[in-house]
């Protein structure tokens, strides 16, 4: 129904406007989704315990969709096992100038140069506070907090932005994701270099260790890293003892694209990223000796795509562009395939 009826209509309009329209529909009429969509699969065999957290199923929503924690309850009703909000920054910021989101229909892809547009960490916290009752629920949805720096913050002061977001969000999220791999904030990817990244992660981990109960910290990396840089990532994860890695963010590569928007600047996501993302997952898993958990994300448009990432070494997977192109039923399809494989 989604691909044959709903998607063709939505894809006739500007993608960013459609995003906000969809949010409004889900927020105000989310109960209708339960009438038209298949009931989410619930099966104890889908549960996963990863970095000390219990996930009801291994299929999550990647950061960037619900940036400001406006829709996590409605999205969890679609069957996601966990929701990642953000990227959040200390101060609100509008992001880059529009137009900044582009569909590449022939490639089943998206290019975005949003630029960490968000209402700021304090606004998100006010919404997350309303979710505090879920702490008493046995079937609560796990929420990750993806954090970054403001565009105007120079790299030499970036650590402070991450510290602010970490401290403020700590009571309200279940795990953290350090985003230094978005291509849409000037010079941000420089923080992936070994020295600044080690300093950043060590600082956050030290703050974490001061808490009565620690929360997992993950690092989200770019798919464009070389093998040498990926080996550095393995060393950094081991040295700082963070919980794991999310592989991968969007790519700057434009190889083999055919759509008219292929030359737009920004990060590319979707099917063109499928193979490279899985390669990075396999490399990290094998070269580290499976020393840490990996969340696999990038180009998951089918159950088979998800299974390949799990087989490559991912413990969990996340959707974004595949969710937009294939619709909510993709969540059930992946979980069914996992159960069938079991």
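Sequence proposed for the structure above (342 residues):
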């Amino acid at each position: 129904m989604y691909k044959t009826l709903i998607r063709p209509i939505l894809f006739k309009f500007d993608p960013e406007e459609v995003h906000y329209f969809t949010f409004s529909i889900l927020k105000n009429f989310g109960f209708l989704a339960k009438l038209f969509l298949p009931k989410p699969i619930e099966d104890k065999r889908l549960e996963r315990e990863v970095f000390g957290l219990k996930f009801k199923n291994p299929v999550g929503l990647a950061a960037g969709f619900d940036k400001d924690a406006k829709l996590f309850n409605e999205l969890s009703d679609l069957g996601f096992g966990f929701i990642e909000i953000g990227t959040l920054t200390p101060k609100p910021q509008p992001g880059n100038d529009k137009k900044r989101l582009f569909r590449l229909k022939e490639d089943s892809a998206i290019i975005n140069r949003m630029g960490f547009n968000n209402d700021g960490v304090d606004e998100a916290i006010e919404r997350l506070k309303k979710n505090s009752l879920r702490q008493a629920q046995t079937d609560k949805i796990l929420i990750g907090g993806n954090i970054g720096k403001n565009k105007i913050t120079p790299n030499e002061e970036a650590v402070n932005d991450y510290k602010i977001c970490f401290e403020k969000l700590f009571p309200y999220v279940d795990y953290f994701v350090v985003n230094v791999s978005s291509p849409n904030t000037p010079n941000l990817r420089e923080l992936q270099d070994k020295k600044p990244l080690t300093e950043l992660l060590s600082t956050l981990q030290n703050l974490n260790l001061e808490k009565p109960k620690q929360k997992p910290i993950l690092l989200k990396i770019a798919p464009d890293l070389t093998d040498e840089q990926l080996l550095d990532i393995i060393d950094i994860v081991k040295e700082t003892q963070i919980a794991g890695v999310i592989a991968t963010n969007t790519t700057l590569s434009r190889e083999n694209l055919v759509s008219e928007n292929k030359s737009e600047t920004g990060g590319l996501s979707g099917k063109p990223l499928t193979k490279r993302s899985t390669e990075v997952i396999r490399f990290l898993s094998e070269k580290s000796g499976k020393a840490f958990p990996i969340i696999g994300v990038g180009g998951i448009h089918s159950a088979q795509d998800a299974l390949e990432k799990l087989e490559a070494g991912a413990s969990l997977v996340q959707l974004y562009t595949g969710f937009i192109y294939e619709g909510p039923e993709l969540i059930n399809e992946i979980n069914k395939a996992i159960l069938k494989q079991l």
